[in-house]
Design brief:
Strand content: 15-25%
Distance between the termini: 82 Å
Structural class: alpha/beta
Largest sheet: 6 strands, mixed
Number of strands: 6
Strand order of the largest sheet: 3-4-2-1-5-6
Helix content: 40-55%
Number of helices: 4
């Protein structure tokens, strides 16, 4: 009798484990298929190489018109990173407070853009514009008019001023 109960228990356990394995493999397959079917998130870097306040940078992220239709990515999942200047005088006065503001109020937050273009912004990270961690679909130069904007724009079609 004990042997019979033990065999039924082992059989039931094998059936349950087989079912759980099947469910997990189907779930994993669906996740992989959905991820493969979805276009990647659009990546945008907003560069600030001069002394601009966070309102200007944040407004650029929320309102600067971009040609989403030209890129092979999803504007519904756009990630905006900020690249800040490493200029010593600005860094002493405004860099750290700006980074604290960004990390506390924006980083990781998701909002629809206020320009009405259907894009959804996920505020990403603060980057060093001299050493990006990845390639972007667009680089918006918030301060490009403080320098030679033609030189900035001539770097490629992904450059915006």
């Amino acid at each position: 009798r004990r042997k019979s109960i033990l065999i039924r228990g082992v059989s039931t356990l094998l059936i349950v484990l087989s079912f759980e394995f099947f469910i997990q493999s189907q779930s994993s397959k669906n996740i992989r298929n959905n991820a493969h079917d979805q276009p990647r998130a659009c990546m945008v870097a907003v560069e600030n190489k001069a002394d601009y306040h966070y309102e200007v940078i944040e407004s650029t992220m929320m309102q600067y018109p971009l040609p989403w239709h030209e890129w092979n990515c999803s504007k519904r999942h756009a990630i905006f990173d900020v690249a800040l200047t490493q200029h010593d005088s600005w860094a002493r006065n405004e860099l750290e407070p700006w980074k604290l503001y960004f990390e506390k109020y924006l980083s990781g937050k998701i909002r629809e853009r206020t320009i009405g273009d259907g894009a959804v912004v996920r505020f990403g990270t603060v980057q060093n514009y001299q050493n990006y961690s990845h390639r972007y679909d667009a680089y918006i130069g918030v301060s490009c008019d403080s320098f030679d904007y033609r030189q900035w724009m001539s770097k490629g079609p992904e450059m915006f001023c």
